[in-house]
## 1
Amino acid sequence: MSKIQMVDLKSQYQDIKPEIDQAIQNVIDSSAFINGGVVKEFASNLAAWNQTKYVVPCANGTDGLQIAMMALNLNPGDEVIVPAFTYIATVEIIALLGLTPVFVDVDPKTFNIDPSDVEKKINAKTRAIVPVHLYGQCAEMGLLSAIAKKHELFIIEDFAQAIGSEYKGTRAGNIGDIGVTSFFPSKNLGCFGDGGAIFTNDEDLASKIQMIANHGQSKKYYHDSIGVNSRLDTLQAAILNEKLKHLDEYIKNRRSAAKQYDELLKNLTGKLEIPYRSANTTHVFHQYTIKITSGRDRLKNFLSEKGIPSMIYYPLPIPKQKAYQKYTSDSFPVSEKLSNQVISLPMHTHLTSSDIAFVCESIYSFYK
Ligand SMILES: *Cc1c(COP(=O)(O)O)cnc(C)c1O
């Protein structure tokens, strides 16, 4: 048995090597490294796949979030509601634009932003909510959309971890005003470097987004707004265009791995909790994250000694991070507890049944 990996990008590549290699070679032969034809082609294929009207590719997911905020004309001092338990990118650009991140605790079962806590944090300065569909399952978008409507707030979905997940039949990225995803290599649709995309069904927003991502340029050398330079490389677009053809299958593989984990781990109820499935959303298992009642770090070390990798996403809630403590001294009891309880097990498209069985047997032996 080969070594179990957290993410196995090599096997995924081997399966479609000829197509990927050819796609890369075509870009090199064309020399159209920036804004080559395949960038548009990929954006249009992705829009169709995700049932979204407009997709604007960009350099990475973090840029995508920044461009989304800029397109919504948010101004310094405006408040943006974010979950306390997420990856730093969600919050970083808010701070960078001089906006004020307002942290909200998460639901202990879904790990996603808690709508009842969102309502409590809304005031006259609040302009937007950024739900993060953490680990691959949509936040409670029905309630969040109702709150946003009532208070006239924008919603930017951070679905970097959840491409393909659906909330009551609607694809992630289509529920809020704007959706942003990432093609970081380990994401569910990953390229061979950095990449990202911004999704919207609003034509005006789409053209603003397009313009901001391209130096605020309305036509060449005419700049109508302050923008950024954020492009998806043609090489990355060509790779993604090939991988997109397999995304449904990749999601299927992740789900079947999750199902096998569930079956093997459910007898440990009381010691650990398998991922909760919300009735309103499908799960694409960017991560398979379990909760350990106590001894999480000991389990992590135990697995590591058996050659099994695992990860802690995330060990410290954002408002407790040094750089972000200035925004609030509130406590976020659920996020703080989760950061001590969660552990993500190996999860990727090429995990075998015997890999999963070995991981689960090892967890059993930890508890013997
Ligand atoms: C990966 C990720 C991003 C952005 O990622 P980039 O590395 O900038 O492409 C944003 N939010 C979340 C929750 C992520 O997991």
## 2
Amino acid sequence: MTDDVISHYRACHLCEAICGVEIKTQGEQILSIKGDKDDPFSRGHICPKATALEDLHYDPDRLRMPMKKLADGSWQEIEWDEAFATVADRLADIQARYGNDTVAIYAGNPNVHNYGSMTHSGVVRKALQSRVTYSATSLDQLPHHLAAWAMYGHQQCLPIPDIDRTQFMLIIGGNPLASNGSIMTVPDVKNRLKAIQSRGGRFVVIDPRRTETAAIADEHLFIRPGSDVFLLMAMIHTLINEDLVDLGHLAAHIDHLDELPEIVSAFTPELAESKTGIPAATVRDLAREMINAEGAVCYGRMGASVQQFGALCQWAIQVINILSGNLDREGGALVCSPAFGYITRGEKGAGSLGRFTSRVRGLPEFAGELPAVTMAEDILTPGEGQLRAMMTIAGNPVLSASNGRRLDEAFESLDFMVSIDFFINETTRHADIILPPTGPLEHDHYDLAFNRLAVRNVTRMNEAVFEPAPGALHDWQIMNGLGVALAARKELDAKPLPAPDVLIDMGIQAGFYGEQQGHALALTLDKIRAHPHGLDLGPLQPSLTERLGTESGKIALVPDYVTADMPRLAEVAQTQSDDGLLLIGRRHVRSNNSWMHNSHRLVKGKPRWKLFMHPQDMAERNLSDDDTVEIRSRVGSVVTQVTATDDMMLGVVCLPHGWGHQRSGVKLSVASQQAGVSINDLTDDQFVDEVSGNAALNGVPVTVTAA
Ligand SMILES: Nc1nc2c(c(=O)[nH]1)N[C@H]1C(S)=C(S)[C@@H](COP(=O)(O)OP(=O)(O)OC[C@H]3O[C@@H](n4cnc5c(=O)[nH]c(N)nc54)[C@H](O)[C@@H]3O)O[C@H]1N2
Ligand SMILES: Nc1nc2c(c(=O)[nH]1)N[C@H]1C(S)=C(S)[C@@H](COP(=O)(O)OP(=O)(O)OC[C@H]3O[C@@H](n4cnc5c(=O)[nH]c(N)nc54)[C@H](O)[C@@H]3O)O[C@H]1N2
Ligand code: SF4
Ligand SMILES: [Mo]
């Protein structure tokens, strides 16, 4: 080989931590992938998934050309022109016959890890003219956006834990040691958590499992799944009843404060104890610690969002930070000041709730999207408006959304389905046409989502490592091509958008650090490019009061949806919880949602898909370690193996999501050899947080018996 060895610096895009990596290449060969020690944010930290980028790049199962499904179910490579024309014809035809809203889009998680998908999906959406769209948001963080929209006036106005300066961090239903942080972009999180302890602070984890994060915490408290709202309401109750409320500089910026005491009056620490299993005295102590620490933050993630009362939980977490004087304060929770997408008053895309509803169940839209839990019934239920066609973009809802088997059935019943994805997996196997984009190392990337959620203000441009293969298209080029073809077929006006870096450069120049705002840095994308290890823009700063976009310009402490949800909570408060088993999820650092199990280096070794169960719960059912068990829920059953561990709370069992690649037609040669099952064959599409429409994927009632 005569090529030179080149070092490329960019961020790993796989999870929210955006760790800097150094990728050494020679010609077309990847020589190594290592943590970039000169990245000021991630400081050389990476996890095992970063090196698996190599496997993804070379994966022989990764599609390189559009695929068309033939009548016998086999796949044929076709040219891009034919692919675009076929999709445009089929979708336009269905829309002409049945109406625009009979074609829907589901957009999955990697869309937010790929800037071209974000900048360009509008081209397709505009041509499609359908208001029926879904995304992984309603399987995940919708309650966060709902609270941000209703309380602060913009769905992206999300306060982030100031982890590097806090003295007390209360982590509710998050496991950053496995997930590397979420709605908190925090590379090297383990060292950042330990630093809280070494500067004399504390962090406490509330979780039904003694997780990797709980294991290094100062205190771990088990909690009964789905009961967090009682803990949080009782903490607010304590702050009010013990006269601890200290609003700090936000005092003049809060509306509806007077409504709060009435709302929380019945939610005593004693009620919380009976619902959560956490002693009333501890509940009170947690509330007091939020006030007493020099900078404290309550942070709740998947466990507090993706459950029956996700919206109330995320609202209550904001309220606790506000009442304890920790919102918009150093060491508390602060809104980022990113180079692109700085949220300020009047910013577009603020959010909305319930402007329209899903066709069968009548669940509300949020920010123009319908809840993913309604997708299957809106496809399968005959009648006016029945969905006839789907487009999935970087998503695998058959493994990711509740009641995956029903989605299998729904997708199979469609007149037409197109998927923008580079694998034939559990979802895309149902497509008629698959449009595969380039892989991550073949395109550039500017992070639109996670620079906005980071624990410091940071920015970087990630250049492509390799030229795309001849004939390959990026996601944004596919969206341009497909959008223009569909618009032409429907006789609409449509123009392709320029490359994403052009659009982002404009946004950065107009943005917070841009010349147009008179900032001394006068940032441009080229100036950012001159910092291949990333550019640090400093710690998070108090700035919320200038950015509030609510009608009154104040924080709406008690939004309407909260009041509206109180009767549902009151009902649950009065019912005796039964003592059946509840199922929750888990993540592992070597796994990434449903789509990195085709990397041998990530799946090898000890199986990571087994059911976790407390030994006493097992003994009651005459089960032993490694037994094969049947897990049953209202919607289905799976058979898998059980592992005994007292890391589980009594009465709670735990499975990871994203497994179950043995379904027929899946073309993932490594993943489909893995024995795990899909937890979402058990989760229930009727089990939701009704006020937000977010799926309740945690706290699902199940039985476990010997198989
Ligand atoms: N029970 C349970 N279910 C869960 C969760 C849980 O905790 N418990 N977590 C939920 C959460 S938080 C999320 S975010 C969802 C994720 O749910 P989804 O987003 O639906 O699924 P992913 O597994 O992320 O699948 C991503 C798909 O995108 C493709 N892909 C990857 N990169 C690209 C790209 O650059 N371009 C294109 N076009 N395609 C790409 C992959 O091949 C894969 O098919 O799962 C949810 N489901
Ligand atoms: N390695 C890896 N990293 C990832 C991902 C991945 O799949 N693998 N996925 C990425 C994505 S899309 C996301 S959204 C983030 C998620 O990031 P996190 O939210 O940090 O991830 P989880 O590990 O799902 O943490 C949820 C925790 O909630 C607990 N829990 C479950 N039910 C309850 C409950 O009712 N109450 C309480 N208090 N806790 C509960 C679970 O035991 C679990 O420890 O991770 C991202 N990072
Ligand atoms: S934690 Fe791992 S997967 Fe996430 S960005 Fe860093 S290296 Fe990539
Ligand atoms: Mo997610």
## 3
Amino acid sequence: MRSFRLTNEEIQSLAARHQTPFLVISLAQVEENYRFFRRHLPRVNVYYAMKANPASRILSLLDSLGAGFDTASAGEMETLAAMGVPPVRMIYANPVKTPDGLRTAARLGVVRMTFDDADEIEKMVSAVPHAEALVRVRIHNEKALVDLNAKFGVNQEEALPLLRRARDAGLTPKGVCFHVGSQALSTEAYEEALLFCRRIFDEAETEGMKLSMLDIGGGFPIPLAGRETPDAEQIMQRISRQLDRLFPETEIWAEPGRFLCGTAVNLVTSVIGVKKRGEESWYTIDEGVYGTLSGAIYDHWTYSFEAVRSGEAKPSTVLGPSCDSIDFVGRGVMLPELKTGDLVLVPDCGAYTSASATTFNGFARAKAFYFEDMPATVAPRREMIA
Ligand SMILES: *Cc1c(COP(=O)(O)O)cnc(C)c1O
């Protein structure tokens, strides 16, 4: 898997025109990631989890490629509807829906939704009586960076009774969904989840309830600083084989977020202050945990920092610009001796970054540019770098 990365010449040329911090989004990389996913999971349709990065042209690109969208709120559904995305290509995948979200789904015609409790059935019935319901099951997975099963999902034995209740209440019990946790580093959790879903499908069938849809969620990993690069191709191929074996006739969907957008964005920052703490250099840069690097907190993420200046690398600390002591964005980062004004690149920061950035302390959100819009003098067309 390749990632989008600006060259040092491009970084310098861009920084000469635009104040840092800024983001550069590669739509070509998003497209490549989407095609990679579809190639290695050919039977799996995509609902892009737009919370990972809702940049408008990422959404319109994926729309044009035929993707659907995983939404969690009225706002996300409205955004897509305003772009002309038809409601059949949206899933309202929040197991606990707001009154506003349900009204919006009803008005727009979004009928596919997930749930994990009987209480939610009543809410769906009264707002969207023809809803197609997928029950969300809980997956135990220690090999994921971000656990999404603490808050959501029912145990296996609770799934069928819930689908039965949904049917008795007049909804269409459509299938089962799960999320193995974000940045999942092995296939075991997926494979276990698929076996577990197969049992639910079989049990449902003995009761005359034919489930037709399986949603395998997100979690597909990207490179992470300081860790072995996950083999996404191998993970996908194994899942694909299991799907053919266990679900040869079922319609399969997935909700990748990070995988589609994570490697498509570069952040360009500047060093705004240098201090010595003992032997170590501490670099304050102009973007931090309250901005694009918010994933350091919310997403448990470890970013890479790459200096444009070269030199002997030493373990250093990288800090954000706010006046809060939580604003550490990197520890033990290998960097050459830097000076105030030096440029530092953060690659692979397209997922759960700008989406959760704030303007805390009065620091503006980093501006975002699309690589495809850059004049050839700044960024000549080229092959992406591995
Ligand atoms: C966040 C989320 C996703 C996306 O997860 P990634 O790990 O980014 O692929 C998919 N489905 C649901 C329900 C989510 O909440």
## 4
Amino acid sequence: MRAFFVTGTDTDAGKTTVTAGLLRAFAKARVPAFAVKPVQTGCRETKDGPEAPDVVCWKKAGGEGRALFCFRTPVSPHLAAQIEGARLDVSSLAEACREAVAEEGVTLFEGAGGLYVPLNEDENMLDLMRELRFPVLLVVANRLGCLNHALLSLEALEMAGLRAAGMVLCRVAPPAHTDAGTRPEAEELILGDNAGRLAEEGAKRGVPLLADIPYEEHFSSSDGRCWDVMAARLEKAAAVLAASPEEDEGAKERLAFDRAHLWHPYTSALQPLPVREAAGALGARLFLSDGTSLVDGMSSWWCRVHGYGNPRLVRALQRQAARLSHVMFGGLTHAPAVELCRRLLKLLPAGLEHIFPADSGSVAVEVSMKMALQYWQSAGRGEKCRFVALRGAYHGDTLGAMSLCDPVTGMHALFSGVLTKQIFVERPACRFDAPYREESFAPMEETLRAHAGETAAVVVEPVVQGAGGMWFYHPAYLRRLRALCDELGVLFIADEIATGFGRTGKMFACDFAGVTPDIMCVGKALTGGMMTLSAVAATKKVASVISGADAAHGGGAFMHGPTFMGNPLACAVACASLDELCASPWQEKVEHIRQKLEAGLAPCRAVPGVADVRVLGAIGVVEMEKGVDVEAWQDFFVACGVWIRPFGRTVYVMPPFIVSDEELETLSQAMLAAVRSAAKHGGTPFVDEGVFSC
Ligand SMILES: *Cc1c(COP(=O)(O)O)cnc(C)c1O
């Protein structure tokens, strides 16, 4: 089973003739072949229903095929649909196309016009092709300007992440027909040269020229012999397409190599947990190289809020890569960094005014700790050099950040010799969704009053404790903390790396409490998950104290500066991501996801073995009574068509904001099926026939 998308450099490039010829060439080679026209305009009404001109042509060549969406008006698809009171959209077209792929042999999907032919006001043929991800056969009309058209089309395919399987050059007009201004000899010379040039340019890009078809007067006739000539010219093309590599070619070998040499997060090098190969992703779906399509419940660990393949983000990255991908930030600046800072200042809680761009979340946490330490050094209070953190916290994996993580789940015992001993307070007991109880703040108040003299800062993940246990606590706690920090002269650092940019339903979780921390770390979703980037924002007060220090206390310079600080690619894509977020009704979307998750996960509460179910913003958590076997749960989820990776006792989802209702339903159903199966099979879900109903 193989499918290809046949497209042209422009209208009348000869796609239909080439498709017809290929059908005949496949037939001669005894390869079952079938053609599909996703949208056909100019259809004729007959007593047996609409008759599609392209299908008629394929049949003349002895081929089989059908059209999926037919319109009478002989104009471009979006216009024909509009005139006839219909609307085309990529998702229904793609669904119909996928269903039309023949079980056996080769299916050729023939587009209409070229790549950028509109299907509606927002989507075009290339969007449909991206959705289908079939390798592409580009039919190039051999006329003046054809190299330009062909190379631009190849470029567009590459930028869309599509593989061009080959090109067919096709002469579509009789000699001296194209342009009255060009002399016939000159035209012959040019068109004759095109094949050689196209073959060379194609070779540079790994796209072979599979055939060069001269002009034929009688293509449209039903004379079988003329089609035999055509089929002979396309014999090689058909053979190449039939033998073209499957998407997962080499995947087995790569997985074995990976297993032997690559270290994955939190795994053994010698006995690693199994991994799967991701070959692509689009929207809220991941595609594995074995062809499996999974609904992504993880947003790749919080960050892919706009899902995958968002054109605005992809374009921003490509544009910036072509312009200035990286330059040192010492002594130089650039528009992407400045524009990002401008955008952040508009979104951050009022009072945060100075931005330090850094490479990753953990580095941002290190930077925030160094800021707090230098602040007190500069203020002549160097003895204030410890940090107060919460149990159940997660702040990153570098040594400084790790010292702030929960001492038990953060593996402090393993690194006890080198980790700075911080001061820990029990996690806030007041649930987000229950009335606030003042006594839940007592442990913090007690500790902070006792240690204020030696404490540089309190570091917390506001409202949502993420990787440390997915715990949601009451925002009133943050208001109390802000007031107490002010009273005792302790800095307040908010780690919004997981919570930032809408995940909780607020732009930042601090916004629930209306507080401004002295220092805030952001990361993860900052670039929409396209690249690693983080930022540390500080108030004027923090920046002024550090910057006003005398020579003995740092001389006013903040002492940090990573090589890839403010990387232009990352900043440019972060700008695009923030623009995308702000242009979208993200608050409504997150609220909608919250309601759907709440309803979808509620039945889990009644299942034995489930300790708690909680939902906040676009985060849904099922907490089990016992720790889960990650591998078994993951196998179960993949069998259900979802990507969910539990850890510890929590099974949770935080889908991209662009997730559809149907995809959300799939995620909740899979979680419910998993906990039910686990309840039946001693705590671990078992992939049995029941799975496939989910
Ligand atoms: C992920 C995370 C970090 C660490 O970020 P990295 O980019 O993985 O280094 C820090 N704090 C919180 C709250 C996080 O969720």
